[in-house]
Design brief:
mainly alpha; about 650 residues
């Protein structure tokens, strides 16, 4: 870990934060950071490793970046990738401007609810015709100078910036407490962190390229994936609007059956997702697609027995998933009880030396996390949320943060989301009596901005970075300050790029992706309107569904930890009701089949060659997406969302 690596990391973070909003929402190309495998980050790693380092060695060997420097740049970019798109910027600005704008529609009557109760400083304006709102949605006329009303935005940026800082810092410290349990005690696979570690293994040795890249299996995987990718984009060169995606038409096959009324979707094949499914244990990849199929069957039977199911199948599955999230989090803490006790003793000064090799000391993690909880309670209190509802919301938030980190670090799934809503759970738990109108709006906005779309939530990036941090040796304690500085740079650059280069020049309604200002905002403010009015449409707790999800998860955890022969990991049950698994289940099925065939018919050497082959597949896909993105930036040609789920 050197100053050179840190400065290159800052420049890389700056470039990523400035470019991502333009690429994603103006050009509309494959997202650079649109999931837990931010391809823009790994493409830059390839540029450093295969171009910059090779060129530097031709001049002088010492000019090349060392492995620790490469990993520092990667970790800084990886953590900062949560900021410029769906992790924050995609929803932060539309949700703070849309209440007044959407109220112009004849089917929304939010003047006396959302607009009247919204706390000062959380939304930009209550006037739909205010210039700062009008220009945000409709852009700047051709020939006029783009002017962002920074003074009007200052209260919004400050109010939300305080909570975002508390939440981000708390996530770092929570992951710091759990790192040893996941990495050393449970030995999770960390397939995303494993990719750059294996890619740079032996870096700096002769010859110029790392050993993995020189292996025959890696080159075969790279070539096969590259050929497949070129076939996929070939229709664009013949005039098609987008390339060809890979899918098995499952919906068409079951179109005339009862399964057509279930969430069963086509089995889409993404080579990166297939590769990551191969890298995780077979019981994990099996659970990812199997529980999705079982969920579809559950929906089928619930459709048959629909009248007795209160709230319909959708609400039932949402609350069932909430129960599974909470039970899984409780079970995980129970499994880590000895480790957590050691953390507490170290934080209280009753034990020494237990955290010497940790990137974040236990004392800092424990007391810092406690300070973040107190600061969050103060923020909630300022905006009208009482202590008990605030504690409940933080409990639900912690479950979301931990489960998504676990799904990525153990399951290798690059697209995650939850069907249930933490603020709905808080409202339903207290029956609405403990929440004022301002509290409801604040809680709904907070969930919409940070947790409703968890495809780029911070916690998986932090835990993967802490796993990679093992290469830093004695200087690993410098990792946290470096990551926090990078995160601040990403926040400033992402804010500037989003407002100055995307929303105010082009207009939010004219972007390539308008989900955040349409359904994203409606899903936040329409329930808030109903909760303030205390109507029958306000969320209600389905205790039976919560109990079903919790009991099912506890049972699956018991079977998995008690019987060595139990073939399915319960991780897939956590995401089976989410939309995120629908484009992913086919890739996990395919990756699982390949691994099972090799385990049954091949040898250990075959399995190792298979791992190198799929690492080559990942590298080829990353390189292809990076090059196509550059072509799109220069020419304006759109290749579509072909290579990664979105």
């Amino acid at each position: 870990m050197t100053w050179r690596g840190f400065l290159i990391g800052l420049l890389a973070v700056l470039g990523l934060a400035l470019l991502t909003p333009v690429n994603d929402y103006v050009i509309g190309n494959t997202y650079l950071t649109g999931n837990h495998f931010p391809v823009g980050v790994f493409f830059f790693l390839l540029v450093l490793l295969l171009l910059l380092n090779v060129g530097a060695r031709l001049v002088h060997r010492r000019l090349a970046l060392k492995r620790g420097e490469l990993m520092l740049v990667l970790c800084m970019m990886l953590v900062s990738a949560t900021v410029p798109a769906s992790g924050l910027m995609r929803y932060w600005f539309p949700l703070t401007t849309s209440p007044a704008y959407l109220t112009q529609r004849p089917d929304f009557f939010w003047e006396q609810t959302v607009l009247a109760k919204a706390p000062e400083g959380l939304i930009l304006s209550t006037d739909a015709h205010a210039p700062e709102v009008h220009h945000f949605f409709h852009g700047t006329r051709p020939g006029e100078v783009v002017r962002v009303p920074w003074r009007r935005w200052a209260p919004v940026l400050t109010s939300w910036g305080i909570f975002i800082a508390i939440y981000y810092l708390g996530t770092f410290l929570l992951m710091g407490i759990l790192r040893r349990q996941w990495v050393d005690n449970e030995r999770l696979t960390f397939p995303i962190a494993r990719y750059p570690l294996e890619l740079t293994g032996g870096e700096g040795e002769r010859p110029f390229l790392p050993p993995l890249i020189r292996s025959r299996a890696f080159l075969w995987g790279f070539a096969a994936s590259l050929i497949l990718g070129m076939v996929q984009i070939s229709p664009v060169f013949t005039g098609a609007e987008t390339g060809m995606d890979l899918r098995v038409p499952v919906q068409e096959m079951f179109a005339d059956t009862p399964l057509a009324r279930t969430p069963l979707r086509d089995a889409r094949i993404f080579p990166i997702a297939v590769a990551l499914a191969f890298l995780v244990p077979a019981d994990v990849s099996l659970g990812m697609w199997l529980f999705y199929i079982l969920m579809c069957l559950q929906v089928h039977f619930m459709n048959v027995w629909a009248p007795p199911v209160r709230g319909g199948t959708g609400r039932f599955l949402e609350w069932q998933q909430a129960g599974a999230f909470l039970a899984f989090t409780a079970g995980m803490f129970w499994m880590a009880r000895r480790h957590l006790w050691q953390v507490l003793l170290t934080a209280l000064g009753r034990s020494r030396g237990a955290d010497e090799d940790e990137p974040i000391s236990y004392r800092l993690s424990f007391w810092g996390l406690l300070g973040c909880v107190v600061a969050a309670l103060a923020w909630y209190w300022y905006y009208g949320i009482g202590p008990l509802p605030a504690l409940a919301l933080m409990l639900f938030m912690m479950a979301v943060v931990i489960v998504h980190a676990r799904l990525v670090c153990q399951g290798g799934i690059i697209l995650t989301n939850q069907a249930w809503n933490p603020s709905h759970a808080m409202y339903a738990l207290f029956g609405g009596w403990a929440l004022s109108g301002p509290a409801i709006v604040a809680a709904q906005m907070q969930t919409g901005i940070l947790w409703s779309d968890s495809r780029e939530i911070l916690s998986p990036h932090v835990m993967n970075s802490l796993r990679i941090g093992s290469v830093f040796g004695k200087r690993r304690r410098l990792l946290l300050p470096a990551l926090l500085v990078g995160l601040v740079v990403a926040l400033v650059a992402g804010t500037y790029s989003s407002l100055q280069w995307v929303y105010y020049p082009h207009g939010a309604v004219n972007l390539a992706n308008t989900h955040a200002i349409n359904w994203g905002s409606i899903l936040v403010y329409r329930p808030a309107h109903e909760m303030i009015r205390r109507t029958s449409a306000a969320p209600e707790m389905h205790y039976g569904a919560v109990a079903v999800g919790a009991v099912a998860m506890v049972s699956l955890q018991f079977l998995r930890t008690t019987f060595y022969w139990w073939p399915v990991n319960p991780l897939g049950f956590l995401i089976s009701a989410s939309w995120a698994i629908r484009p992913m289940w086919g890739s996990f099925l395919f990756g699982w089949l390949i691994k099972v065939v090799i385990l049954r018919l091949g040898s250990g050497a075959t399995l190792r060659r298979g791992r190198r082959f799929f690492l080559g597949v990942v590298t080829s896909q990353v390189a292809l997406i990076g090059v196509l993105t550059f072509i799109s930036l220069v020419t304006g040609v759109r290749f579509g969302f072909l290579f990664l789920p979105s």
